[in-house]
Structure formats: structure tokens, C-alpha cells
Design brief:
24 strands; alpha+beta; nine-stranded mixed sheet
Length: about 475
């Protein structure tokens, strides 16, 4: 947090009106992106977002305002806007403010960083990206190649009128590279090095994404996929590696379990959910092998934290245990509205957004099978990895997903590549067809920096960790 943090707090306390309760969330967010495409250094991207979010509760009303004008006058103007909304909210209450839990204790969190971003010079970073570009250029059929590194640092302080103070510091690393191969009318793209994912930590996290070690393999697979046969169209077993399990968990478990969506808040924007409140505690979401946890304690995962943005302490909780749905992804506000137990997942993307129910670290717990055993258990099917397309209906039930790469499995053995592997199904069905779950040796930490939700939209980081998994009787198809 900037050195003038205390001055901002003092100015706010000098102008905040006398109310039953207030909170102040200060956010300082810095981005930097470096990219090399086709051997050419792209213009670097640098951005900073800095401001405060103010919440007020008073005499049955609840309201908030936000500002980047961090002077005493700017803070006073934001407070005055919130007071105006207080009067309106008293006439149209969603919930009684006294039913909303307030932060009860303070604390702090800081992401572990072994190799800081600044420990490598700009020249060293660009030379690494150039080396990757050269490695990707293995064949004349490679028509596009790129590599990038993004650093994000976010510092958040939450203070309340109850003298609670929470400070959290997040350091994110977002790496990746891609190769696009073309022959005639056929084009295939293969990505790696963490493309589309991210982790908390410093440059040491690159090794966890095989960055840059997998660059040549990425290029070789892009070239091979151009000449590979189409994925067959049939019903068969599907073996999803963690890079695709991330998306499967995200779309068909994460979004359906968001409590504000179940309550109807997203209806006119991103849809509702096939899940209803009466399902919790009894509904069979999947086979007995399905165990899903909300776990903000995994150090390098994208959405690890000690407190959510409402100040609720975060802890590991089962959402689905042995296939039975236990609890939703609902923060303190939604829990009070629905009178159900949830988790600490009220999150905001920046200072100019309120906290809403969001996925955080949503993980599938490991089972007992090695990857070789998963493959051996498939008579006929397709191994798929790395998502490239997704579509799901507005109740988060019927879906269709595509992957970058597929491999045939016949009689328990991996065979050749197939291109354009796709599969479709129903959320309420595919998880019940979960037939085998990989052990810890197949478990990988992934995540997405690009989960959108809310009006106005909020783009937020989400973590997903999973082993490889086998599903029976899945409809698969190619791209022709």
C-alpha cells in the first residue's frame, strides 16, 4: 500500500458521517505485461488502479460509493453520495443490515515470493521471451508465435468503524506462449507455459508451468495436429487432464453453486442456476468419487487469501463430499439472505466494485489412480487437454467444450493424436459418470485470471486445482 495510506485513512475518518457502521476498502493495483510476437517486442503494458470503496449502514439502510479522488474533498464527496443512497435503500431494503455479519477480527496475508519480478532486468525478461519465440519456430508451417509475461501486484486494506483492520498483499505471475501452425485450410494452435492461467508468487512459479521448457513440445504438437485425423464422433470414455478439468470444474460446478446466482441476482446478465436451495444437504451432484473443496489455503493458487473482501475469515470447506452437495459458494451477505451456511468468497475485482459471490480456489480432491492406471481402465476413449472453447446454457447445465489436443485410447493404451476434440453433456449428469480420479501424482494447480460476472462486469482471478479424471459415456465429436 502507498506510503500515504495513513493520510487517506485519517482524511476519511475526518469526513465520514456518524452512522451505525462503516467500512473502507483501499486498493492499489499494478500491472505490467511484456510480450514478444514473431520475434518482435510488443509495446509493454503498464497500468495502475488506485482508489477506495466505502460502505455505510445506518437506520435500516445500506449503501456504498467509490472514488479514486483520494483527497479529503474527494472522500467527502464519495461519503455524500453514499448517504444519498442510504435514504433510498431504506425504502427498498433487500435485507436488514443487522442480519449481515460484520468483520470480527483483523489480520494480514502476503503471498510468498522467492524470486521477485524486479530481480530480473527488463533485458533478461525480453531475452527469455525472444528465446522462446526462436524455439517455437521449428517449421515453416508455424505462422504465428508469441510469448508473454505479466506481473500483477495488488494491495488491499479493509478498515471498519469497529476498529477492525485487515491488510493483504497479492503477487501474481501470468505467463504463457503459443504456436499456430497452418497447412492449406487447416490451422491448429497449441499453447503452454501457463497460457490462460496464473499463480501467486514470483518468477519461481515459472517452473511449475514448465516455462520455458515445454516450448519446443508446444510447437511440435501444433505442427502434428495439422496433419492429425479428426476426433471421432461417438459416445465413449473421456480422460480429462488438469488443464481441461479446470474449465469443467469452473463452468459446471463453480458458477452453478454461486449463491447470488441461485438467488436470482445474475438472471438478466449471465443467467441463473439449475441448483436450488433445497438441494443442499441431499442432492447427488456426482459419483461417490466427487469431492470438491473451497480451499483458500493453497499457497501458490490464484485465489488464496486470509479474508474475503467483506472481511470474513477464509477456511477450507467441502462443497461436495462423496458426490453429495453440502454448501454453496455464498459470502456473508448471501448467507444472511438465504439463511444457509456458505464460505468466505465475497470478492471484488477492484476499488470501484462491490464484493459479490465469486469462485475462489475451487478444487477437486485427488483419488487413488495413477495416470497409467487411468489410461489402462479405458477400453475406448479420448484423452483431452487444454481448453480452447466453451459454451454453456444460462442455467449452467447443458455445455459443450473443446480442447486443443486429443489422444485416442484403445484397449487401455494411448494411441495417436486427434485434432479438434470436443465433448458435450449436462452438468447434472456428467459428474455422476465420474468413474476414476487421479492420485496426487496427477494433481496440478491451475486457474484463470479472466472470470467475468456481475453488472457492471467484474473480471477476477479464480484458482482451480485437480487431478486427471475419467468420465464414462460422454458424447464426443470432431470439428468437421
Amino acid at each position: 500500500m502507498p506510503t500515504d495510506r495513513q493520510a487517506i485513512i485519517d482524511d476519511f475518518k475526518a469526513v465520514v458521517p456518524a452512522v451505525d457502521f462503516w467500512s473502507l476498502r483501499l486498493v492499489n493495483d499494478d500491472y505490467e505485461t511484456l510480450q514478444v510476437r514473431d520475434g518482435v517486442v510488443q509495446p509493454p503494458s503498464l497500468s495502475r488502479s488506485r482508489g477506495v470503496h466505502i460502505s455505510l449502514m445506518d437506520r435500516g439502510g445500506m449503501a456504498y460509493a467509490a472514488t479514486s479522488a483520494l483527497t479529503r474533498d474527494g472522500l467527502r464527496a464519495a461519503c455524500e453520495r453514499a448517504v444519498d443512497w442510504l435514504a433510498i435503500s431504506r425504502r427498498h431494503p433487500l435485507i436488514e443490515p443487522e442480519r449481515v455479519p460484520r468483520p470480527a477480527r483483523g489480520g494480514h496475508y502476503s503471498a510468498a515470493v522467492d524470486t521477485p519480478w524486479e530481480s530480473w532486468s527488463l533485458k533478461e525478461k525480453l531475452e527469455l521471451l525472444q528465446d522462446i519465440n526462436r524455439t517455437l519456430s521449428i517449421d515453416d508451417s508455424i505462422v504465428d508465435r508469441r510469448a508473454y509475461l505479466t506481473r500483477r501486484q495488488t494491495d488491499i486494506s479493509l478498515l471498519t468503524s469497529d476498529c477492525i483492520e485487515i491488510d493483504q498483499a497479492f503477487h501474481y505471475l501470468v505467463p504463457g506462449y503459443a504456436a499456430v501452425a497452418n497447412k492449406g485450410a487447416q490451422t491448429q494452435m497449441r499453447t503452454g507455459g501457463g497460457w490462460g492461467s496464473a499463480r501467486q508468487g514470483g518468477l519461481e512459479q515459472l517452473a511449475g508451468f514448465d516455462f520455458p521448457d515445454s516450448a519446443r513440445q508446444v510447437a511440435e504438437e501444433a505442427v502434428a495436429l495439422v496433419d492429425a485425423p479428426e476426433c471421432p464422433s461417438t459416445s465413449a470414455d473421456v480422460l480429462l487432464l488438469p488443464s481441461q478439468m479446470m474449465l469443467q470444474i469452473h463452468e459446471s460446478i463453480g458458477h452453478p453453486l454461486e449463491l447470488d446466482r441461485i438467488l436470482g441476482d445474475e438472471r438478466n446478465y449471465a443467467g441463473t442456476s439449475f441448483v436450488s436451495l433445497d438441494m443442499f444437504g441431499s442432492y447427488r451432484y456426482g459419483s461417490e468419487l466427487l469431492n470438491i473443496t473451497f480451499d483458500p489455503t493453497v499457497g501458490a493458487e490464484m485465489a488464496s487469501y486470509a479474508f474475503d473482501d467483506e472481511g470474513t475469515p477464509a477456511q477450507r470447506e467441502y462443497l461436495i463430499r462423496d458426490g453429495i452437495l453440502e454448501r454453496p459458494l455464498g459470502g456473508a451477505m448471501s448467507q444472511a439472505r438465504a439463511d444457509v451456511s456458505g464460505v468466505a468468497n465475497a470478492r471484488a475485482c477492484d476499488w470501484n466494485r462491490p464484493a459479490i459471490d465469486r469462485m475462489a480456489n475451487l478444487n477437486l480432491e485427488p483419488g487413488s489412480s495413477t495416470l497409467d492406471e487411468l489410461v489402462a481402465g479405458v477400453e475406448f476413449g479420448v484423452l483431452m487437454e487444454t481448453n480452447r472453447s466453451w459454451s454453456i446454457d444460462d442455467s449452467r447445465n447443458k455445455f459443450q467444450f473443446g480442447c486443443e489436443l486429443g489422444r485416442l485410447i484403445e484397449n487401455g493404451e494411448l494411441k495417436g493424436l486427434v485434432r479438434n476434440p470436443n465433448y458435450r453433456g449436462i452438468s447434472a449428469t456428467i459428474w455422476r459418470n465420474l468413474a476414476a480420479v487421479g492420485d496426487a501424482s496427477t494433481f496440478e494447480v491451475w486457474g484463470t485470471p479472466y472470470c467475468g460476472k456481475g453488472e457492471p462486469n467484474q473480471m477476477i482471478h479464480v484458482g482451480h486445482a485437480s487431478p486427471a479424471c475419467v468420465f464414462r459415456d460422454v458424447e464426443i465429436f470432431g470439428g468437421d
